[in-house]
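hey m, so remember when u said the tokens were messed up on ur end? i reran from scratch. heres the input so u can diff it against urs
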Amino acid sequence: MLTTTDIKEIIQIIKQCCGYNLEDYAEGSLIRRVDRILLNEKVNFTTLLSRLQTNKDFCKHIVEEITVNTTELFRDPKIWTFLRTNTMLDLQKRPHINIWIAGSSTGQEAYSMAILLSELGLLDKSRIFASDINTKVLDIARKGVYRYRINLDSISNFEKVIMHNPLDFDDKQTIQMEKYFSVDYAKDQILMHDFLRKKIIFLENDLVKNPKLDFANFDLISCRNVLIYLNNQLQTKILKGFHSNLHPNSYLLLGIHESILGSASVHFKKKGYVYYDEL
């Protein structure tokens, strides 16, 4: 079992050798992820340290393994249904909609947002930015191609959020998933359609260094299942960055098990499954 001293040594070597600062990541999460890396790479702790120090590409690979998060289309459908029937009804009144998916991983969250906006007739007036520290998952996201057999929940989630008709839309029965993606069963692939891929701007960004994107302000920031891996100090830093990056009276979406505590909480008011920034 790795110790606090072991994790501190890894953090220091990664910082020195490839410039990534993991000091504010939750220790328990780091221990679990490094344990998994030791198993997957089939190396012991001493060998891992040596390779981190001597191989910059390997060091970057380990950072990517530590920071990767699992995701799927319309993860936690009840959250997406809430966005569709509440938050988006407010945003649709705005002349333009800017959305930032922070910690976007392999991109399913961003594609889910694009599909939802399209269903509500808001995609053309929206800009979607999706960022992650991990260049490997960004490459996957840009391609928009996913394994079908390990994404079966995505199909079920789509049906719960998009095929469901909570607002009694007259044309709801005409909506099919083929409008947005195709399934190639022989190749075991889900392929997002080009008009969605071209709508989303994927970019590399380290939330630890840059908890704010300087080129735009946003009507909705989604950062789901990222803060849970960080300590309280870094969570507060990122949340304050989000606050300064939101338009007045805009929204922040976190993971279903995440909440805003401490000094950052003065900026946000809980409104269903989202936080509302009133300042």
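this time it looks ok to me. The mean pLDDT is 90. if urs says something different then somethings off w ur setup not the seq
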